[in-house]
Write a structure and sequence with these properties.
alpha+beta; three-stranded antiparallel sheet; 7 strands; 21% strand
Length: 151
Amino acid sequence: MSDLPTLPVTFRPGHTRAILLTAGVAIFVVISGVAMLLEQLGPGERLSFVVTGALIFWVLARLARVKVVADESGVTVVNIAGKRRLAWAEILRVNLRPGDPWVFLDLSDGTSLAALGIQPGLAKQRAIADACALRALAEAHAAPPGGEDRG
């Protein structure tokens, strides 16, 4: 299977990430700059402006951190609020259907996990290629047919 990506491989929405981080820095700089330029503000008020700018940057940085990392032993899904490690055997299917905001992983426990690191928002063709690559990796690392049946 020479068309499989070399492991480890990281999938992340590059354009979205760049936009979010750039916007976060710009917002922080503008809000902090306004705080320093407004002469009628006291030190506490200036600090509140800077803290507000830092909080906005932090939120945008959390949105930009999403990724899916595949290695020999499994997949790590990093979403906005958390991170989850999955063994290859836990991933039954990789889905990116038309209209989906991101990839969904169907898991062996009957649940589905959103993988925000592959999303077709600004780079649809790249997201489709990344989803296909992750699907191929999951299929290549799946338990071989005729193996132990867990019922």
